[in-house]
Design goal:
There is one protein chain. The protein has 2 domains: about 20-70 and about 85-300, phage-related protein like fold (Alpha-Beta Complex); about 310-395, Immunoglobulin-like, CATH 2.60.40. About 25% of the residues lie in helices and about 35% in strands. The chain contains 7 helices and 23 strands. The protein has helices spanning about 5, 20-50, 110-115, 115-145, 155-170, 185-195, 245-250; strands spanning about 55, 60-70, 85-95, 100-105, 150, 180-185, 200-205, 205-210, 215-220, 230-235, 235-240, 255-260, 265-270, 275-290, 295-300, 310, 315-320, 325-330, 340-345, 360-365, 370, 375-385, 390-395. The strands form 5 sheets. A 7-stranded mixed β-sheet has the order 5-15-10-6-9-8-7. Strand 12 and strand 13 (about 265-270) form a beta hairpin. The N and C termini lie far apart (about 105 Å). About 30% of the residues are buried.
Length: about 400
């Protein structure tokens, strides 16, 4: 029989690895985080008519599509061969979806000073909002790349024409738009409605109005520039995700709490005793995505396009070979999907306007020496994904004359 006096308090100690109240509270917090995040995003997917998320492997390439082709004349004489209408779908790599890792820490001192609710619960809510914005920022960036560009004199007409353009595009693609969504600037909406009473709802941090000016859904955001309307068919929208509960992660000892119904995000909370910090970890790979960039309308309001062409700073020096010049651009590309284009002209800079199609200009990697004639002008343009000019610069070429 054991001598209790010698064993002391160890007799009454809890067994190792016992699940106690502290562990239950941490698990409940993790479940609450992923469940509320998942329900919020599912609400947005329901509004957009996206019935399910498409699972992708970590590191998968996301591709956008473009449909081109012309319907041939159907007025064919008796016995004549019927002309073939050819349509093709071009795919282009756009981006990569991968697991992204985030961490937030709250110190013991902050908890002691402000209390658990303020130091942890409220910062959890802010952490969640920031994660939502990470997803939405990428989505807004893609929406702004829409190639159905144009301008209208009034904001109401811009909304109408944006809807009309995307419906017309889908008809040409032999698809039927299940509905349309538009995105407008917050101030533009209130300028239009004035003191009228409008009912806005919110899902996943996006405010929206149903059945507004002909659109099934009108999203309202300061992310959209003023005097701008963006639109696309609802069935042009897709949602992708990388499973944060991947068994390979678990094998590596990285088990995250994941909502079994949605699986959008993984969350884990733990105390780091070495630093007396309450650490929160989140992993996710979620993308809202428009499948066809050429089915996104980007309409500016005004008598002319309100977008202005950005400027590039260029320098030129003699190249390493005869007939070559070395052009340097002080600025970097504003997007990984943009590219450099150039054109030479004998007497003056080539005129460039914002949104001008420069897809036929010569492609340039930003480094290689360019073949040119001494004192001729070299105009360099930064083109967006659709080959439209967003910035431009010009320089008089200093060309190696050779021996």
């Amino acid at each position: 029989m054991h001598d209790v006096r010698k064993l002391g308090l160890q007799v009454f100690a809890a067994p190792n690895n016992m699940t106690g109240q502290a562990q239950i509270q941490v698990k409940a917090r993790e479940i609450d985080f992923v469940t509320s995040f998942g329900k919020s995003m599912q609400a947005l997917l329901d509004v957009m008519g996206i019935t399910r998320m498409i699972k992708k492997a970590n590191g998968s390439v996301l591709r956008v599509k473009k449909v081109s082709g012309t319907l041939q004349n159907g007025n064919v004489a008796e016995g004549d061969e019927i002309p073939l209408s050819q349509y093709k779908v071009e795919e282009k790599d756009f981006d990569t979806i991968r697991i992204e890792k985030y961490r937030k820490g709250v110190s013991l001192e902050a908890i002691a000073e402000k209390g658990y609710d303020a130091a942890v619960d409220q910062t959890d809510a802010e952490f969640k909002a920031d994660l939502q914005n990470k997803i939405l920022d990428k989505f807004y960036t893609q929406l702004k790349m829409g190639s159905l560009a144009g301008h209208e004199n009034t904001w109401q007409m811009a909304v109408a024409m944006a809807i009309g353009r995307v419906k017309n595009k889908f008809e040409k693609m032999k698809r039927t738009a299940t509905g349309t969504a538009v995105w407008v600037n917050t101030l533009d909406v209130y300028k239009y409605v004035g003191a009228a009473d409008i009912t806005m709802q919110t899902a996943f941090g996006m405010s929206y109005i149903k059945n507004f000016l002909g659109a099934d859904i009108c999203f309202i955001s300061s992310q959209i520039p003023e005097n701008t309307v963006i639109a696309t068919p609802l069935n042009n929208l897709i949602a992708y995700y990388v499973d944060p509960a991947d068994s390979e992660f678990v094998k590596a000892g990285l088990a995250y709490t994941v909502d079994s119904e949605t699986g959008f995000i993984g969350f884990h909370a733990q105390g780091t005793y070495e630093r007396a910090i309450s650490d929160m970890f989140a992993i996710m790979g979620v993308r809202l995505f428009a499948e066809y960039l050429d089915a996104i309308a980007y309409i500016a309001v005004g008598s002319s396009d309100t977008q202005t062409l950005g400027s590039l700073t260029l320098t030129s020096e003699e190249g390493s070979e005869a007939g070559k010049t070395k052009i340097a651009v002080a600025e970097q590309l504003t997007s990984i999907n943009n590219s450099w284009k150039y054109k030479t002209n004998a007497s003056a800079a080539t005129e460039v306007k914002y949104g001008m199609d420069v897809s036929g200009w010569t492609a340039w990697d930003g480094e290689s020496e360019i073949t040119a004639t001494d004192t001729h002008h070299v105009t360099v343009v930064e083109a967006d994904y659709n080959g439209k000019a967003v910035r431009s610069g010009d320089v008089v070429a200093d060309v190696n004359a050779g021996a």
